[in-house]
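Model it.
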Amino acid sequence: MLFKRSSNETPEKKAGLFERMKKALFATKENLVSRIESVLASRSTIDDEALDDLEGTLLQADLGVLVTERIMNAIRQNHRKQLIKTPDDAKAEIRRQLLSILTPKASADSQEIESALQVWMVVGVNGTGKTTTIGKLAARISGEGKRVLVCAADTFRPAAIEQLSIWAERSGAELVRSKIGMDPSAVLHDALSAATARNSDVVIIDTAGRLHTKSNLMQELDKMRRVAGRKVPGAPHEVLLVVDATTGQNGLAQAREFMKFTGITGLIVTKLDGTAKGGILFSISQELGIPVQFIGIGESLEDLIEFSPEAFVDSLFNEGEPI
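Modeled.
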């Protein structure tokens, strides 16, 4: 990913970000870690009854079946080997497993195609905060001194186009838009031509969350991928799925559908500050292997932050220091 965490962040800024994250994840912590601690608190050792109670608690905490099975298999295996004897041992193993799930795995098959112009598609259903997230991304990347062009290819929602216009003006990014109802792929084609002519560094594409025609949404998104690839080598270089954390396991169902057609490379999870269902990050990462790239922990620009698995898990377990 082209955008990187700024290397000149001060320790004070990092500490402030870490504290904001812990505050935003309070409800998720109560739903997950506090429940785990409650199950383990009254026990001095780990027995079969404790393991069964722990499994039920994990299933109720929006982690999903696959994540729960992975954690419990690891705990039971280490318990048989007498590596887990106490509640603290079990809690430490849960933390290790959760961190491992969120940590991106290196792919030996991945081949990056060099391109001066980076093309990012942002997908997701309406109502997830997709358009606002694009505006915040544009502002962040522009702030790093990059030339950003935003493509308003959600041509069926006038409000989305107007919203992007405001963000583009605010962030200094350029905007390519068209008439309402125009073919989204045609808008994308024009935007990529404009980006090449203007020496842009990054194109961020807003896509429809649904279409008001007989065309299938996923087929349209697949068509846009092909158009991007013909115009720019290796494009789209990122396909980012925006998921509303408040939807819980519905977010996993959305990710499955988009994954079939759009080749998602990263996840952006929004509205984590307003839900206890932040465990959805683990479900999607475990089942689909999609790394989380950014998370939204509030309404301001500073509350869209680059994701760190270590900081996220530390925030839930109230451990560690900002990184």
